[in-house]
Amino acid sequence: MPRVTITAPEKSPQPYRFQLDRRVVTLGRGSNNDIVIDCGSVSVSHAEMLRVDGGYELRDLGSTNGIKLDGVRSEAIPLRSGISVKLGDVAFDFVLSDEEREALAREKPEVESPIFRDLGEPPPRPVEAESREDLVVVEEEPSENGGRIGCGTVVLFLVLVALAFCVGLAIRHQKETGKSWIEAVQQRFQPAPENAAPATPPPAPPGDLAE
């Protein structure tokens, strides 16, 4: 559990603990704050501690004396473990356990995350393209296999069309003649039997008769 210690002038330090999933913790002299600071240099609604990706941030709420880090006043201060900030004349100390620092560091492994600076570990560098050409999407030409598959599809389509046409003819022939179209084709191309009598030749014209 993160720990915040508030130390007002001439008063004993007051420690506070809260869960990592706590999103906002308000600080000020007013009684409606999560951490009430009894000090004249602290405004009624002085600051708030926000849960952000990778850690916490202390933000000023328009207070009279503001929040300061190393004597420099800021609107927002990233919080790292062991940091000491001033709210008016009051010291604000922030501490995380090792497990909490590792958990927060995994949330946002970026340069601006104060958790990495606190752990003393360099954040992973993002992979960047060496040039803008690496970012261009290149359209690949169709491979030979792809072309073959396309031709095969066309041939299959034509075969199916031809089959459908033949089936249509067969159905129409059967309706008109009452016979199967396939049997008619077989009879037409079937050779005549060898013992069949030769066909009688047609009579010759009168002018060709012998005298």
Strand content: 15-25%
| Total strands | 11
The radius of gyration is: 47 Å
**Shape category:** rod-shaped
Tally of helical segments = 4
End-to-end gap: 138 Å
Class by helix and strand content? alpha+beta
Global mean pLDDT: 76
Q: How much helicity do the residues have?
A: 25-40%
- Low-pLDDT parts are 124-143
| Strand order across the largest sheet | 2-1-11-10-7-8
Can you put this structure into words, describing what you see?
By secondary structure, this protein is of the alpha+beta class. Helices cover 28% and strands 23% of the residues. Strand 10 (83-87) and strand 11 (90-95) form a beta hairpin. The chain is rod-shaped, with a radius of gyration of 47 Å. It starts with a strand and ends in a 22-residue tail after the last helix. Residues 124-143 have low confidence and may be disordered.
State the main characteristics.
single chain, 211 residues, alpha+beta, six-stranded antiparallel sheet, five-stranded mixed sheet, 28% helix
Short summary of the structure?
The protein is α+β, with helices and mostly antiparallel strands and 211 residues long. It has helices at residues 98-107, 114-119, 144-177, 181-189, and strands at 3-7, 14-17, 24-28, 35-36, 47-52, 55-60, 67-69, 72-74, 76-79, 83-87, 90-95.
Spell out the blueprint of helices and strands:
Blueprint: E1 3-7, E2 14-17, E3 24-28, E4 35-36, E5 47-52, E6 55-60, E7 67-69, E8 72-74, E9 76-79, E10 83-87, E11 90-95, H1 98-107, H2 114-119, H3 144-177, H4 181-189
Parallel strand pairs: 3-4
Antiparallel strand pairs: 1-2, 1-11, 3-5, 5-6, 6-9, 7-8, 7-10, 10-11
